[in-house]
Amino acid sequence: MNRSITAIFCKLSLLLLYTFFFIPESLYAQQNIIIPVETGQNAFVLQVNKEKRTEIMYFGKKMNAEDYSTISGQYKQVEDNAGIYNSAYTPSGSWNLVEPAIRITHGDGNTSLDLQYISHQTTKQDDNVSVTAVLLKDPVYAVEVSLFYKVYNKENVMEQWTVITNKEKKPIVLSKYASANLYFIANNYFLNHYHGTWAQEMKPEETKLTAGIKVLDSKLGTRANLFQPPTFMLSFDKPASEDEGKVLLGTLAWSGNFQIEFEMDSYHNLRLIAGINPFASEYTLKTGQEFKTPSFITTYSEHGKGEASRNLHNWARKYRLLDGEGSRLTLLNNWEATYFDFDEPRLTGLFKDAKKLGVDMFLLDDGWFGNKYPRNSDHTALGDWQENIKKLPHGIGYLVKEAKEAGVKFGIWLEPEMVSPKSELYEKHKDWVIRQPERPEHYFRNQLVLDLSNPQVQNFVFGILDSMFIKNPEIAFIKWDCNAVIYNANSEYLKRTGQPQTHLYVDYVKGLYKVLERIRSKYPKVPMMLCSGGGGRVDYEALKYFTEFWPSDDTDPLERIYMQWEYSYFFPVVATCNHITDWSKLPLKFRTDVAMMGKMGYDIVVSKLNEKDLQFSQQAVANYKSFSDVVWHGDMYRLVSPYEKPFASLMFVNENKNRAIVFSYLTNNRYMNPTSSLTPVQLRGLDPQKKYSIREINLYPGTGSSLKNDLVLTGEELMTVGFNPDVNGGRMSVVVEVKELK
Ligand code: DGJ
Predict the structure, then answer these.
(1) CA of 535 to the centre of ligand 1 (A)
(2) What are the residues whose beta carbons fall under 8 Å from the beta carbon of 210, sequence distance 6 or more?
């Protein structure tokens, strides 16, 4: 055989082997091993070098498999330490000088780590999902690291995590243990990340990354997203727009402290390391123990942020969000209508209001519990989950029954991870509370956090929900709130059991997941809302257990347009709870239309609505029910950005492309500003061949539409020229149904 034929033969046989087979160590010696991890459109390619180190060779558009083998030869970035910049999982303490993904102190006190390739294996779970596992080992110490890459072919999503195993004879200490280590080569990098605080969640900021390390992190323990969520968009070469540009969307599936680092190396390449925040979290692994990191989830598109976000929506609805492909309950919540001030007659009156409105359920919020210290303000009673006998002398069971008689389901608010310093639970079980006994207590919203690293506390928290369901099997919904961060991080339980305090932040979150796991194995279906004093907690690990989340206490619809816009890049709107409240003086129709772009609910005093407002709301609930399927499960397109124009336009199209709902809002009503949509809005996602009727819906009683009656346009025309929703000061929000004409 001549040399080129031999090379082709070798390549082909290796290709066949590595696609779905295990590569034994002996084969490695013969040739560099290439490990392509591919989705329908993208590829992430690892290569094992001569020193048996696993490097990231390529990240981007999928190519022919044989093309990957020649990539490495094209790069001349090889001097000194550069060889480790693109490590698939960067160790520390040996020759690495850049930010590591892992740091270990071995049983004998040695702090160095080297990781060499041992084997890899790709397992197909079904036609769409496969997992590639790469096993690495330290040549000197008995430490193993397995890198997992799970790909969802159609959705173009990659989920990655790491398992670290201690096979040494003594315990080892992990002081960094990232979930993901990625490497990108582009001309420039633009990071779109988020910051905020209570009622101001998800404020975007785009930064061109420069030399050095940019870190997104949280050290709050619980309610960890309050100032910054573990979500970002990273554009390559130039900032990606909605429909153009190369962009990676990333998010960490972890409900506690996180750290996402973007380090530009000396070649202007970008290193990304993401995982649990190592801050105060050194983790000891005994002999034989393993540590599984949370998942880091990414999707990559070369066609802009819109496509990338639809990838995530499709993936989340199908594979992650609890009941992501199911439906949701519309509701009336009493929080802003009553706050803590209610009793049985007032609540049963509200059940009737919920029915009058036409929603599916009444949700009883905070304030229903505590007797020694009644919950009449946010200073007391968290932990004392018994009905307050003055407010509710006949208990929750009576309310469930009354709600049923009124024709609505009944849901209830809980904040099970928390304790008030003024509570019987605190008096009885101070050792269950996260606090430093020798320091003054610090409160966040006048409360403290229970120590979920303690199995007894886990039982207690599980018991709160379990006994609620046992006593009231017809409870149809739980709102799970979490209003405090962790101050004075110290656990009596860890102390008592001889475990390091530095396990607390991690074991808290693991304890939370254990509770949620138990709840879901016993009550798999009951819808639950993930709430955290607004949007302090939403991530794709928690969303395995929750059907929806509360993005923010800020329900001003103008603010919400921006906030929901940003959340929607990462989470499908079926998971986003939007309530109509009295936070704003903007017209009820505007508030309602904004809430319709997700899971709609009400938090208003129905009895104070005037006749027309009530009539409008009743029709709105009915309209919403008629098209919510399109919003919840259709493809979402952001058409006009409120950051660029004085109005916003978004649409949802169903799978068959025969029905779409288009929402448009005036977002800037300043004097002399163009206060109307001067140009048409080009729609997306329709079938160019189909004919569609355009009809304005959800009109306020007594107002007509300024859109032409019986307007029929082709999909082609709607997507090329578009139509004008005629948004203006007199028509601040417009909802249009686009329906195939047969
Ligand atoms: C914070 C939540 O975000 C609100 O909706 C409400 O449930 C209050 N907590 C109750 O205390």
Answers:
(1) 10
(2) 264
Residue 2, pLDDT score: 39
| Closest residue to atom 11 of ligand 1, CA basis | 366
- Ligand 1 atom 1 nearest Cα: 533
What are the pLDDT digits (tens) for 435-464? 999 999 999 999 999 999 999 999 999 999
Angle value at C-alpha 416, between 453 and 217, nearest 5 degrees: 60
Listed residue (457, 372, 370) closest to 414, CA to CA: 370
Query: Is residue 51 classed as helix, strand or coil in its secondary structure?
Result: coil
Dihedral Cα 663, 669, 674, 679, nearest 10 deg: 0
Ligand 1 near 367 CB (within 6 A): no
Extents of the domains making up the chain: 21-320, 331-559+582-628, 637-740
Task: List phi, psi (to 5°) of 594.
Answer: -65, -40
User: Among 531, 537, 550, which is best to mutate for testing ligand 1, by the most ligand atoms less than 8 A from CB?
Assistant: 531
Pocket lining: 369 vs ligand 1, CB cutoff 6 Å: no
DSSP category for residue 574: G
pTM of the model: 0.95
Do 293 and 178 form a contact (C-beta atoms < 8 A)? yes
Distance 357 CA to ligand 1 centre (A): 22
Please give the average per-residue pLDDT across 229-255, as a whole number: 98
Half-sphere exposure of 603 (CA within 13 A, CB side): 24
Output Rg (C-alpha) for the chain, integer angstroms: 27
Helix (H), strand (E), coil (C) string for 215-234? EEECCCCCCCCCCCCCEEEE
DSSP 264: E
Edge-first strand listing for the sheet containing 54-61: 34-38, 42-48, 54-61
Enter the CATH code of domain 331-559+582-628. Answer: 3.20.20.70
All residues at 6 or more sequence positions from 682 whose CB lies less than 8 Å from its CB, including other chains: 639, 718, 719, 720, 721, 722
CA 378 to ligand 1: nearest atom: 11
Q: Are 275 and 177 in contact (CB under 8 A)?
A: yes
471 close to 478: Cβ distance less than 8 angstroms: no
Considering Cα of 605, then 350, then 547, then 517, what sign does the dihedral take? positive
* Ligand 1 neighbour 335 (Cβ under 6 A): yes
Please tell me the distance between residue 198's alpha carbon and the centre of ligand 1 in angstroms: 11
The class that CATH gives domain 637-740 is mainly beta
Banded model confidence at residue 729, pLDDT cuts 50, 70, 90: confident
Crossing angle of helices 395-406/344-357, nearest 10°?
Answer: 30
Question: Which atom in ligand 1 lies closest to the alpha carbon of residue 534?
Answer: 3
In short, whether 159's Cβ falls inside 6 Å of ligand 1 is no
Residue ranges of the alpha helices (H) in 557-637?
557-567, 588-595, 611-633
Q: How many angstroms is it from 487 CA to the middle of ligand 1?
A: 20
Structure tokens given for 442: 């610090």
DSSP 8-state code for residue 438: T
CA 611 / ligand 1 centre spacing (Å): 29
d(CA 225, CA 482): 12
Among the residue ranges 269-273, 649-653, 665-669, the one predicted with the least confidence is: 665-669
Rounded to 5°, angle at Cα 215 from 210 and 218? 160
Q: Would you say domain 21-320 falls under CATH 1.10.8.60?
A: no
Judge if the beta carbon of residue 554 lies within 6 A of ligand 1.
no
Percentage of residues of the chain with pLDDT beyond 90:
89
